[in-house]
Amino acid sequence: MKHKTFFWFFLPTALAMFLFIALPLTSIVSQSLHTPHDAVLVVVESCDPFGCKSETTIDHEASKQIKEEQPKGKWVGFQIYTDRNHLAFKEVGELWENKTNLIDFVSGLNNLPFYRAMGFTITFVLVVTPLVILFGLIIALAVNSLHRHLKGLMVFFSLLPMIVTPLVGSLILFWMIDSRGIIGSGLQELFADPNLSLKASTGLTWITLIVYGVWHSAPFAFIVFYAGLQTVPQETIEAAMIDGASRLQQTYHVVVPHLSPLVAFVALIQLMDNFRVFEPIVGFSASAHATSLSWIIWNDIGQEIRLMSSAATTSVLTIIGVIILLMPVLIRTWREFNPQK
Amino acid sequence: MTSNQIKRPLALQILIYGFVLFWFILAAFPFMWTMWGSFKVELDFFSKLDWTNVFSGVRTQVVYGKSFTGAGYDGAWIQEEFWRAFLNTAIVCFCTVLTSLTLATLGGYALSRSGFRYSFWLLIIALVFRALPPITLVSGYLQPFYDWNVWGTLPTTIIVLVAINQPFTLWMLHSFFQTIPKELDESAKVDGCSQFQAFRHVIIPVMWPGVITAGLFSFLLAYNDFAVTGILLSQENQTMVPKIASFMGTTQTEGNIMFAVAAVVSSIIPLFILVMFFQRQLVSGLTAGAVKG
C-alpha cells in the first residue's frame, strides 16, 4: 500500500485517537502543573459617622482579568505532585525518619491517600492475575473433558460474569453478601457469629473485591485456554502415553507448555484491566477500606467542587504506572521486530 | 482422544463433574437469584430471618396478595424514569458502534496491508492507549468541554467513547484483515482497481464476520462503560449504568432498593440475549488476538 493511500485510509481513526486520547493526555499534564488562581482580595476602608472599618472583599474585575491572561491557572510546577494527597515527599520523609520498624513505616504510608490506593491496586493486580490464570486453566481442562452438549451450555453460562457490566455484577454480589442477603446471612450462620459482616473490616473487604475480580475475569482466561486446548496435538499426547506418562504428567508436560503463549496473552490483558480496577469499589461501596488509583481520580472529579489539578496529577502518575507495567511487553515486541541490529 | 476419555478413572470423573458444577453455580446462580428476587419486596429479597422467604415470598404476599410483584420494575421504569436511561443507552451504543466500526475498518485494513515500519509503531501506540484507564483521560476532557459548553450531552459522550474504543477495535480488525489473503485485493488492483475500489468491491463483501465480532466488543465497551458516562453526562442524559449508580446514592429508603434491583436486572437482559445469539462470535473474538500469540 502506498504511503498516500495509507494516509487517507488511516486518517479518520488517527484523528479520533489524536483528538480524544493524545490531546487530553497533554491537557492533563498541563493541568497537573497548574492550580486555579487565588481570588484577588482588596481591602476597602469604609468610613461612617461611627468610625472607619476595613473590609476585605474579592476584586472580581481583577480576578477575571488574571484568569483571562493565564487561562490555565497559576503555574505551580511539581508542587501538586509532592503534596500530601499525591507523592507526599515531606510526609514520607518524616515517616522514614521517625520509624521504629518497617511495619510502622508501612502502616504510616497507609494513611496517605495515594500510597493507600497504590497498595490496594498493586495487591489486586498481583493476586487476581495469577488466580485468574490458574482458575481459568482448571475450568478449561474440566469443561474440555465434558460431553459435547454440556460444553456449549457451560460456555454460555461462563460468559455471563465477564460480559455483565462490572458495576452491575458487583452490585449483584454486593446484595448477596449483605448481612441480610443470602451469602451474608449464610456465612453468619456457618460461623455462628450474628455480627459477621464482610463489609466491616479491611481484610474481608479486600478478599471480597479479589473474589469478585477472579469471578469477573476467570471466564476470559477460560475461553482463551479452552480454544487453545482444541489445538493440542494429539500425536504428542499419544507419544507421551506410550512413554508411560500418567494423566497428570501428560497435562503438565504436554498441554500446559502448549498453552504457555496463551498464558502470556491472558496475563498481559489481565494486568492492564486489573490495574484500572474501579467499578467494584463503587459497587461494593468499599471506598472506606479499599481505594484504587482510578477511584481517587473519579472521587476528585466527581465531587461538587471538581479538583481538576489533583485528579490530573493522579492521572499522570497512573499513566506512568501503566507504562512501567507494559515495559516488558514493549521491550519484547521491540526485540521481535528488530532482530539483532 | 475418545479412548483417552473412556479410561478416565471414576474418582477423576467425579472430581471433574464436581468442579464443573461448582463453577456453574458460581457463574449462573447470582444472576438467577437476583432475577427471581427482583419480583419480591425488599423484606423477602433481604430476609435475615429465613432465606427461604425469597422462594415462598411471604412478605410479598402480605403486601400485594400474591407471591410475585412488578412493583420494583414499576418504580424503576416509570417513577424513576429508567426508560429514559434505557433509550439513552440505546442511542449511545448504536452511534458508538456504527462510528467506531467505520473508522476502525478503514484504519485496520490499511494497517494490515501496509508493511512499513510506521504501521508497527502505530499499533504499539494503540496498545499503549488501550492500556490507559479511561478515567485518566476523562479529567483531561472536563475543562475543555466546560469551556466549549458541550458537557453533559449525548453526542459528546458518543465521540469520546468512539475514540476510547478505537485502539481496541483497531487491533481486532487489524488481526482479522490479516487473515484475509493479500492476493485478493492485489489481483483486483492488477485488474485496474484503485486501492479504495479494491477495498470496496473485494474486501467489503468478505469482511462481515470480523466486523460483526468487533462490533460486539465495541458494543460491550460502550454498554458497560461507567467511568466516561458517569462523569460526562448530565443528570437527564444519563445512560443505564450511571443511572443505576445514582439509585444507590438517593434511594436508600426502604423499598426503593428494589428499584435498583429491578434496574440491574433490566440492564442484564439485553446482555443475556446478546450472549445467546452471538456466543460463537464472542468466543472467536476473545481468542482472535490470542491464537496468534
From TrEMBL, chain A:
Chain ranges passing through the membrane: 7-29, 117-143, 155-177, 204-229, 250-271, 277-298, 310-331
The protein's name: ABC transporter permease
GO (cellular component) term, any one: plasma membrane
Domain of life: Bacteria
Keywords on record: Cell membrane, Membrane, Transmembrane, Transmembrane helix, Transport
Topological category with respect to the lipid bilayer: Multi-pass membrane protein
The family this protein is said to belong to: Belongs to the binding-protein-dependent transport system permease family.
GO biological process: transmembrane transport
InterPro entries attached to this UniProt entry: ABC_transporter_permease, MetI-like, MetI-like_sf
ABC transmembrane type-1 domain residues: 118-329
Places the protein is found: Cell membrane
Principal subcellular localisation of the protein: membrane
